[in-house]
């Protein structure tokens, strides 16, 4: 039996591709239930990674039914709301609601694969594999352990001493429900897809979701403990007082609680020596800032490729893990480098101009 810790996109894809090939696995997840947490905003699925994984998982057609038509439109504004780049969606990078994507993978698994409320608190090597300790005191031993447990992975300690480091940038997630009906001006400003408003080390990154909600990340350079005492809308507006009123409206007209998401990353090129009986996928292996738009895509590619390596080496787990890691390390490094360099470029003066130029160069082929 293969034991996976974490029912995020990486762990679920791994279990699903294994299941398609008749290989059993079990996933332990700390969440109390499948919908215990809001899963966040939209994700665009890239052809060579997220879409490849969905095909390997046999759920590509189902995925297509959930794609938000036109959701991959892109618009770049500076702080005066001057439009520097505006492109309609062309389905090159189809967008799907993160919760719908997770459900699609989750409900494709054999019943009982995911054990909810099963938080791993400790891991250690023992004869014949690894022992997991759970929050309720249970222990379990497994021959093959996969850490798909995200940024603050417990399993990672078995292979590496590295920890995520704060990037200097924090996101505050805000939401505007019923955008077209109640906030038509903001709906028009954001367009059908993704809006990047950037200037002088600040940003508002907004996306229209399938339920007509606008989800926006307000990005600010602040110390790591900035949000410890909570952040208010007034405080956020104060940081954008020289921005166009329409852009400030995204903050002032938002509804509900503000969720702070400090952005952390593992060192670029994070890797480890082959360690028998254990490996990592997704953020556990290569947490990076979101500015290459690759984290979820890579987590799914990792899950699919690890499953394919296990299937290709039925009698040799170490050969499978080695083949998976040999391909994964360089692609994770390349994405982490891109993400780190984009973050620097976008959050210095004239970030909007630089991003618009980047999109224009892609559009020119
Ligand atoms: C603001 C923001 C925007 C982003 N935008 C994009 C984007 O546009 N495109 C993109 O590709 N990526 C994006 N990402 C990155 C993406 O969200 C992640 O890379 C992706 O979700 C990683 O998936 P994962 O399966 O590795 O981990 P996760 O999704 O974090 O899943 C980990 C799972 O492990 C469980 N878990 C954790 N600890 C334990 C434990 N001790 N015991 C048991 N279970 C445990 C958790 O409950 C969770 O279900 C963004 C990230 C952020 C923060």
UniProtKB/TrEMBL annotation:
Keywords: Cytoplasm, FAD, Flavoprotein, Monooxygenase, NADP, Nucleotide-binding, Oxidoreductase. The keyword Oxidoreductase applies. NADPH binds at residue 37. One of its GO terms (biological process) is response to antibiotic. It is found in: Cytoplasm. It is an enzyme of class 1 (oxidoreductase). GO terms for cellular component: cytoplasm. The keyword NADP applies. FAD binds at residues 44, 98, 283. Residues 3-338 form the FAD-binding domain. Its cofactor is FAD. One of its GO terms (molecular function) is FAD binding. It catalyses: a tetracycline + NADPH + O2 + H(+) = an 11a-hydroxytetracycline + NADP(+) + H2O. Its EC number is 1.14.13.-. Belongs to the aromatic-ring hydroxylase family. TetX subfamily. An FAD-requiring monooxygenase active on some tetracycline antibiotic derivatives, which leads to their inactivation. Hydroxylates carbon 11a of tetracycline and some analogs. Monomer. Consists of an N-terminal FAD-binding domain with a Rossman fold and a C-terminal substrate-binding domain. This is Flavin-dependent monooxygenase. It comes from Paractinoplanes toevensis. The lineage of its organism: Bacteria, Bacillati, Actinomycetota, Actinomycetes, Micromonosporales.
């Amino acid at each position: 039996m293969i034991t996976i810790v974490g029912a995020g996109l990486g762990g679920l894809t791994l279990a699903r591709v294994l299941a398609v090939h008749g290989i059993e696995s079990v996933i332990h997840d700390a969440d109390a239930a499948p919908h215990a947490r809001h899963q966040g905003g939209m994700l665009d699925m890239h052809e060579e990674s997220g879409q490849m994984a969905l095909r390997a998982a046999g759920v590509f057609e189902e995925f297509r039914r959930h794609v938000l038509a036109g959701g991959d439109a892109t618009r770049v504004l500076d702080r005066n709301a001057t439009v520097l780049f505006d492109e309609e969606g062309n389905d090159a990078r189809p967008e799907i609601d993160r919760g719908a994507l997770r459900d699609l993978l989750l409900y494709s698994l054999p019943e009982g694969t995911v054990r909810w409320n099963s938080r791993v608190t400790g891991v250690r090597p023992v004869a014949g594999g690894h022992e997991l300790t759970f929050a309720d005191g249970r222990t379990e031993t497994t021959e093959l352990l996969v850490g798909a447990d995200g940024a603050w992975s417990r399993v990672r300690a078995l292979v590496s001493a590295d920890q995520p480091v704060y990037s200097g940038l924090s996101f505050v997630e805000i939401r505007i429900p019923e955008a077209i009906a109640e906030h038509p001006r903001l709906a028009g400003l954001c367009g059908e897809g993704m809006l990047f408003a950037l200037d002088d080390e600040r940003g508002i990154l907004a996306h229209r979701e399938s339920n007509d909600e606008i989800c926006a990340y307000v990005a600010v350079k602040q110390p790591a403990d900035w949000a410890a005492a909570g952040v208010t809308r007034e405080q956020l507006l104060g940081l954008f007082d020289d921005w166009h009123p329409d852009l400030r409206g995204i903050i002032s007209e938002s509804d509900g609680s503000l969720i702070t998401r400090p952005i952390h990353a593992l060192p670029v090129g994070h890797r480890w020596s082959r360690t028998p009986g254990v490996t990592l996928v997704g953020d556990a292996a290569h947490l990076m800032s979101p500015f290459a738009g690759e984290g979820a895509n890579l987590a799914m590619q990792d899950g699919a490729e690890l499953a394919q390596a296990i299937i290709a080496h039925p009698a040799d787990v170490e050969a499978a893990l080695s083949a998976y890691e040999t391909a994964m390390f360089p692609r994770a490094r390349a994405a982490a480098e891109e993400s780190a360099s984009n973050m620097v470029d976008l959050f210095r003066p004239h970030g909007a101009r630089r991003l618009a130029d980047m999109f224009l160069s892609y559009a020119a082929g």
